[in-house]
Amino acid sequence: MSDIAALLTWTNIRFLLEGLGLTLIISALAIACSIVLGAVISIMRGSSSRLLRGFAIAYVELFKNTPLLLWIMFTFFVAQLPPLPAAVLAFTLFTAASVAEIVRGGLASVPAGQYEAARSQGFSAPQMYLYIILPQALRNMVPALLSQFVTTIKDTSYLWGAMALQELYGKEVKYCCNRKEVKDHGADAGNLLGAELHDGDKVIMVEDVTTSGKSIDETYPILKAAADVDVRGLIVSLNRMEVGKGGVTTAQKEIEAKYGFPVASIVSMAEVKECLHNHEVAGRIVIDDDIAAAIDAYYEQWGAKE
User: Fold this and answer.
1) Model's pTM, two decimal places?
2) Whole-angstrom Cα distance, residue 113 to residue 130?
3) Phi, psi of 192, rounded to the nearest 5 degrees
4) Which terminal residue of the chain has fewer beta carbons within 10 Å of its beta carbon, N or C?
């Protein structure tokens, strides 16, 4: 029970609600667009023009006989559209083929006399379909359309695979580094080496270790001087767990308090000690009992009390 309660955090609930909202947005847009496109394809299939009729038949056969996942991958990785437009386009193209067949069946259910009556009254083809035929056909199409739209909502789960690949491998992330000295010539003059910063850029700082926070005190002003960037946080590879300048808490906590952004470490010194203590690496013990005792003594004196 405690494990279930641990999952029901606001962070997890918000994540699920955001996913639900995105599902409903994609489904609503795809359904609306597929109704319009499907109705057009269906009317084209009943057209007297061989060209329009042939196009409609080819469209339906193509999308009814290929998997949805193929079109999702096509819009994501071949067309390289942004995630939301790619998802809506793939679902619209695929669902429209089914909607076209449902609409065609609904139109066929309307007696031929209704078409003849509309023409005899001087209705144009668009007027005939809009005012006479479609309102009657809609009643017969509703059950099948609802079933198709429920399927569309459920099929949005296919987007997870494509979106996950896009999120993991489709990002273009710029980076730059503090070269520690000013270069006064060339195209890359200045303190920073790499991508040029622009106002409004979101920046994550990365550092190997943070001992006193001096490097952050040096780099943060350089970033803000280069552009009005939004520094979102700091990632440190190793939390040394030593007291910072204040002599009470770690330098990481001091940085959080000073600059107002979160600081996260990949691994802490306590975790390194726990992992390597009396464990062989490449045939030798890296941290034996003597070294572990020396580490404990060091942190007894210099470790942060957190």
Assistant:
1) 0.55
2) 16
3) -95, 135
4) N
